[in-house]
Design goal:
This protein has about 375 residues and is an alpha/beta fold. It folds into two domains: about 130 residues, Rossmann fold; about 220 residues, Glycerate kinase, domain 2 (Alpha-Beta Complex). The strands form three sheets. Strands 3-4-5-6-9-10 form a six-stranded mixed beta sheet, with helices on both faces. A five-stranded parallel beta sheet has the order 2-1-11-12-13, with helices on both faces. Strands 7-8 form a two-stranded antiparallel ribbon. The radius of gyration is 21 Å and the shape is elongated. It comes from Streptomyces mashuensis. One of its GO terms (biological process) is organic acid phosphorylation. InterPro entries: Glyc_kinase_flavodox-like_fold, Glycerate_kinase, Glycerate_kinase_RE-like, Glycerate_kinase_sf. GO terms for molecular function: glycerate kinase activity. Keywords: Kinase, Transferase.
Length: about 375
């Protein structure tokens, strides 16, 4: 095996156990304990969902705290990240995510993206010229109507009154007034960063595919899908409702595409650009990537696949660490991984594995060093 001394760690979070930053730190600790002469660089990554702002901050962006409206209307503390070049990273889950709901409360028809719009407005106030809107982990299915309302849009019913918050209220919308939309948006590049390419409505739409995860019953799904279809007809005649990414995060993708002129890009590709992956990977002999579960979803735009593809393009070898491995060797090869190391190889019990993910990661990283670092 060729000598490997330069290692880049580009790991995503282990959901429910460790943040991307914590994963990278643990892997670095284990690698250096086993191979102290190696040169190790950590670049935590994200694909637009939970942890996207943290990854940007770890890469040198400034964390900007803001109090915004949570998914059920109560104020929540959120943050966006601002770079020196005027790029802002806004993570929808910070304002409108499932983690912002009270414990045990799900309200699929009532939750709003208004707070996400407030985060976007705060980024504009800070002078952002490019805004990366990372979507994922949302509690909402309102088509981005709340987000647009916070930015100055008005959605009216037959009596000329603003409709209420949430996707369910969109069943009453008859007019979309965008005349009050924040003028700064016309001069701001908005990038929709998502790892899903679903349309807004239909059997693969926002309500049908993701509504049940947010507590939607079959009746809720049907009502929300119909309301989103009506909303799309009112907003732009449904022109962009079937575009890839329109169904992301309960349809906030559609709102961004139709009203903000956003461009849709796979989340991990956007974030690798924003985080400076190309610069970091230059000269790396080995890239260690990873996420909580390597499974079928990994093959469809998740962080590990994106990192592996980008790293291989620079001639680096790539291995992965994960909590759980549910892919055969041929699928790993297809993604661009030479090997994957799962925590369950050391601790088969899932609960104990999640509870002790940090120390287990250090042990796994030592195995990586033994196998790949000379």
């Amino acid at each position: 095996m060729a000598e490997v001394t330069r290692v880049l760690i580009a790991t995503d979070k282990f959901k429910g156990s460790l943040t991307a930053v914590e994963v990278a730190d643990r892997v670095a600790t284990g690698l250096l304990r086993a191979a102290p002469a190696a040169t190790v660089t950590a670049l935590p990554v994200a694909d637009g969902g939970d942890g996207t702002v943290d990854a940007a901050v770890a890469a040198g962006f400034t964390r900007c705290p803001v109090t915004v409206t949570g998914p059920l209307g109560a104020p929540v503390g959120a943050s966006y990240a601002l770079g020196d070049d005027g790029t802002a990273v806004v993570e929808m889950a910070e304002a409108s995510g499932l983690r912002r709901l009270p414990l045990g409360v799900l309200a699929p028809r009532e939750t709003t993206t208004y707070g996400t719009g407030e985060l976007l407005r705060a980024a504009l106030d800070a002078g952002a010229r490019t805004i990366v809107l990372g979507v994922g982990g949302s509690a909402t299915t309102d088509g981005g109507a709340g987000m647009l309302t916070a930015l100055g849009a008005r959605f009216l019913d037959a009596a000329g009154r603003p409709v209420g918050p949430g996707g369910g209220a969109l069943a009453a919308v008859v007019e979309a007034d965008l005349s009050g939309l924040d003028e700064r948006l016309a001069h701001t590049r908005v990038v929709l960063a998502s790892d899903v390419d679903n349309p807004l409505t239909g059997p693969r739409g926002a309500a049908a595919v993701y509504g049940p995860q947010k507590g939607a019953s079959p009746a809720d799904v049907a009502a929300l899908d119909a309301a989103l279809a009506l909303y799309a007809q009112v907003l732009d005649g449904g022109a962009r409702a079937q575009e890839p990414g329109a169904g992301a995060a309960g349809g906030v993708g559609y709102g961004a595409l139709a009203a903000l002129g956003a461009e849709f890009r796979p989340g991990i590709e956007v974030m690798l650009d924003v985080l400076g992956f190309e610069r970091a990977v230059r000269g790396a002999d080995l890239v260690v990537t990873g996420e909580g579960s390597l499974d079928e979803q990994t093959l469809h735009g998740k962080a590990v696949a994106g990192v592996a593809r980008a790293a291989r393009a620079h001639g680096a070898r790539v291995v992965a660490v994960c909590g759980r491995l549910a892919l055969p060797d041929e699928a790993l090869t297809e993604v661009g991984l030479e090997r994957a190391y799962a925590l369950t190889e050391l601790e088969p019990d899932p609960e104990r594995c999640m509870a002790h993910a940090g120390p287990l990661l250090e042990q796994v990283a030592a195995r990586v060093a033994a196998d790949w670092v000379r």
